[in-house]
Specification:
Layout (H helix, E strand, L loop, with lengths): L7 H12 L3 H14 L7 H27 L10 E6 L5 H8 L17 E7 L2 E7 L10 H6 L2 E6 L4 H6 L8 E7 L6 H10 L4 E4 L7 H11 L3 E6 L10 E3 L5 H8 L7 E7 L8 E3 L9 E7 L1
Parallel strand pairs: 1-3, 1-4, 4-5, 5-6, 7-11
Antiparallel strand pairs: 2-3, 7-8, 9-10, 9-11
Helix pairs in contact: 1-2, 2-3
The protein binds guanosine-5'-triphosphate and magnesium ion (MG).
Magnesium ion binds next to α4.
């Protein structure tokens, strides 16, 4: 593409084209070059070349866009998964950062988060996966992620946002928790009273002042409806980490899980905690457990 005898506008566009960093930019400047290229006989060949190049690049870009859209993000769903959704700038990344080990970019610039960001929250000796979904009003928002999450954390800065966000939840099955982040210093009492009267499950927080964060963590954990069971061996301390079970799980279920299918090897079971009549009570395999029970297995 010799640019001799071309107009200064064309030469400018060409210079920008050559300096471009991305294909999107290249495409934009190619378009400009085509526009600035003289349309007379002597430039015919050159114009044709430019157009071919433009078509090729455009095709390439469209293909990569499609494959990006169709590709699963490869997020491995944990036992307990919550997704944060909300409008841009509502504080989703700030919340993710305060709850988990993730280090998302936080900025007053709109649509800073352009792909889901995963964090892990340690709470009550359990690991909970929390994901920031990009803003609902953007192309980056991942509907599937919200639809499959166990719990949906709806982050808002004003009450009007609730209705707007609920429009995105027609196929979402998870538990919903409304989190009111008081960025604009509304009257906490009034907001809480309204949310309460509408029977929403909600938490009032102020990320900047770290208000309400512990209450929120507890609510998130409770939303999964799981119970924590510690196990122990005779004459030893209980396990530092509980195993996470569904409610109404029995001693048998726990034995199957920790002994990897060898519950038949259990000779005797003792329990401590909320489901026991007294500490160290001997129970059978079909005894139902409660949150924070400790189970001791004596095996053959
Ligand atoms: N004053 C105040 N500012 C906050 C609070 N929470 C977040 N911000 C600010 O609001 C801006 C946006 O916060 P982000 O956490 O990036 O918001 P986001 O929802 O992740 O936004 P996008 O990813 O861009 O859609 C940042 O400048 C934050 O510092 C808060 O409780 N109080
Ligand atoms: Mg963000």
């Amino acid at each position: 593409m010799a640019s001799t005898n071309q107009s200064p506008q064309y030469q400018k566009a060409e210079a920008k084209f050559l300096a471009a960093q991305t294909d999107e930019e290249r495409l934009m400047y190619l378009e400009e070059m085509i526009r600035e290229c003289p349309k007379h006989k002597s430039s015919e060949k050159m114009l044709a070349q430019l157009k071919t190049r433009y078509k090729k690049l455009k095709g390439k870009l469209e293909k990569s866009k499609k494959s990006r859209k169709g590709k699963k993000l490869g997020i491995k769903k944990a036992d307990m998964q919550a997704v944060i959704i909300g409008k841009t700038n509502s504080g989703k990344s700030s919340l993710l950062k305060i709850l988990t080990n993730a280090e998302p970019k936080i900025s007053e610039i709109r649509l800073t988060t352009t792909k889901p960001i995963i964090g892990m929250m340690n709470y009550a000796s359990t690991q909970i996966q929390i994901i920031e979904n990009p803003a609902i009003e953007s192309d980056y928002y991942d509907k599937g992620l919200t639809n499959t999450a166990d719990t949906i954390l709806i982050l808002i800065n004003s009450l009007e946002e609730i209705e707007e966000i609920y429009k995105f939840l027609d196929k979402a099955n998870g538990k919903k928790i409304i989190i009111f982040n008081n960025k604009n210093n509304f009257d906490k009492r009034k907001i809480s009273a309204t949310l309460q009267s509408k029977k929403y499950d909600f938490v009032f927080i102020d990320i900047k002042n770290q208000e309400g964060i512990e209450e929120l963590k507890e609510k998130i954990f409770q939303s999964f409806g799981k119970i924590r069971v510690f196990t122990k061996e005779p004459k030893k301390e209980k396990s530092p980490k509980p195993i996470i079970m569904n409610p109404d799980s029995t001693v048998y279920d726990v034995a199957e899980k920790v002994l990897k299918g060898f519950s038949k090897n259990v000779k005797e079971t003792k329990i401590w905690g909320p489901s026991s009549k007294f500490p160290g009570q001997k129970v059978g395999l079909n005894h139902k457990l409660k949150d924070l029970d400790i189970v001791e297995f004596k095996t053959k």
